[in-house]
Design brief:
This protein is α+β, with helices and mostly antiparallel strands. The chain is built from 5 helices and 9 strands; from the N terminus they run βαβαβββαββββαα.
């Protein structure tokens, strides 16, 4: 298991803004799909504790991730798993004690993101198109190591591209809230 700190700034954007940014950064041929399979208990214990548990499928790679809110950003724990193990967990649920959550979980939602990324100043900028349960949305994420510097760079980026900040809801919450529609 490996652990990291995630510090990100994000905002929803329009489809037109997304397409314009993809073109500006010349990322038309560098968009990759990743599917997140989200897990929780029957009584949504993790959602209520603002913990995200997911298996991310990216190409032929699978990664189990636990993401918990922290004073700054989020703490993430990751375990790489095989395709067979991932398929079994997605189909049957599993005991999440393997990643430090002492309970049984089952798949509750999924979301596929078509993601393009590029280095930008002191971090990485991501342009995401997410598809889930008949919905499509677009957002920018900017990941950095330093909160103050990242906040300023992100704000300057939005200002220079004439993008109005629109608070982005976690992908897991969007998928969960729309799964029965």
């Amino acid at each position: 298991m490996y652990i990291n700190k995630e510090i990100e700034f994000k905002t929803f954007i329009s489809e037109e803004q997304y397409n314009s940014l993809i073109k500006e950064f010349e990322l038309d041929n560098n968009i990759f799909a990743q599917t997140n399979h989200y897990f929780d208990t029957d009584d949504c214990k993790l959602l209520n504790e603002q913990t995200v548990l997911r298996i991310r499928q990216k190409g032929t790679n699978y990664k189990l991730t636990k993401k918990t809110r922290a004073l700054v950003g989020a703490d993430e724990a990751h375990i790489l798993i095989s395709k067979d193990k991932a398929t079994e967990m997605i189909n049957n649920g599993f005991n999440a004690d393997i990643i430090g959550i002492p309970c049984d979980v089952k798949k509750i939602a999924e979301l596929t993101t078509y993601r393009a990324s590029a280095p930008y100043k002191s971090g990485t900028i991501f342009f995401d198109k997410s598809v889930y349960y008949g919905k499509v949305d677009y957002e920018i994420e900017y990941e950095v190591d330093n909160v103050a510097e990242g906040r300023k760079i992100f704000k300057d980026f939005l200002d220079s591209h004439n993008i109005q900040y629109k608070e982005s809801i976690r992908k897991s919450k969007r998928a969960f809230d729309n799964r029965n529609n």
